[in-house]
C-alpha cells in the first residue's frame, strides 16, 4: 500500500511541476524575449474552437512569425481594418508575445500569438499591466487591454492569419 501511495504521489508531483512555459528569443522579429505555453498549460477558454493544445517547437514559432509578417498586410490590414501599418516588423518590434499551440477542428496546427504592447517607460509597466505574463495567458477588459493587446491566429497548415 505504501508503494502504491508513493508512486501516485510521485506522478502527481511530476504533473503539478510540469513546465507550462519556456522563453523564446528571435531578434529578427522583435526585441527581448517572449513566452511559449506548453501543452501542459490549461487554456480552458479556447477549447470550444480547438480540439487540443500542443507545445510548439521553436521552428514552428519561427514559421508563425514569418507567416504573420508576410501576410499581415493581406489578411489583417485589408480585410479586418485593424492596426494599419505598412511595416509590421517595425511596428510590432517592441511588443511582448505569448505563443500557444492549438489544433483546430480540421486537425490544422495553429499558433495563437498574443501581442502585448508595453507603454514607455517599458520596464516599469510590464508587471504593472501584465501581472504574471510569463506564467499566465494575459486576459483583460477595458480601454487599456483593447488598445494594447491583440491576439492573432496563425494557421501553419494554410498559411493564413486572423484576429482571434
Instruction: Please provide the count of β strands.
Output: 7
Secondary-structure-based class equals alpha+beta
Query: Low-confidence spans: pLDDT under 50, at least 5 residues?
Result: 1-17
Assembly type of the chains comes to single chain
Order of helices and strands: HEEEHHEEHHEE
**Overall outline:** globular
Number of domains: 1
Ends apart, CA distance between termini = 49 Å
* Main sheet makeup: 7 strands, mixed
Helix content: 25-40%
Supply the number of helical segments: 5
Q: Quote the beta fraction.
A: 25-35%
Characterise this structure.
- It is a single chain.
- With 164 residues, the protein is an alpha+beta fold.
- The protein has one domain (25-163).
- It is built from five helices and seven strands.
- A hairpin with a 4-residue loop joins strand 4 (96-104) and strand 5.
What is the strand and helix layout of this fold?
Blueprint: H1 2-16, E1 21-25, E2 33-37, E3 50-54, H2 58-77, H3 88-91, E4 96-104, E5 109-116, H4 122-129, H5 143-148, E6 149-155, E7 161-163
Parallel strand pairs: 2-4
Antiparallel strand pairs: 1-2, 3-4, 4-5, 5-6, 6-7
Amino acid at each position: 500500500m505504501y508503494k502504491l501511495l508513493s508512486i501516485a504521489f510521485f506522478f502527481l508531483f511530476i504533473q503539478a511541476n510540469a513546465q507550462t512555459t519556456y522563453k523564446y528569443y528571435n531578434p529578427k522579429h522583435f526585441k527581448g524575449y517572449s513566452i511559449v505555453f506548453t501543452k501542459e498549460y490549461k487554456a480552458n477558454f479556447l477549447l470550444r474552437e480547438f480540439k487540443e493544445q500542443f507545445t510548439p517547437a521553436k521552428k514552428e514559432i519561427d514559421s508563425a512569425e514569418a507567416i504573420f509578417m508576410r501576410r499581415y498586410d493581406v489578411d489583417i490590414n485589408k480585410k479586418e481594418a485593424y492596426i494599419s501599418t505598412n511595416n509590421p516588423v517595425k511596428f510590432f518590434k517592441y511588443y511582448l508575445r505569448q505563443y500557444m499551440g492549438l489544433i483546430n477542428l480540421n486537425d490544422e496546427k495553429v499558433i495563437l500569438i498574443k501581442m502585448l504592447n508595453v507603454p514607455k517607460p517599458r520596464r516599469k509597466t510590464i508587471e504593472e499591466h501584465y501581472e504574471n505574463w510569463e506564467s499566465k495567458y494575459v486576459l483583460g477588459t477595458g480601454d487599456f487591454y483593447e488598445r494594447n493587446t491583440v491576439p492573432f491566429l496563425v494557421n501553419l497548415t494554410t498559411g493564413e492569419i486572423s484576429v482571434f
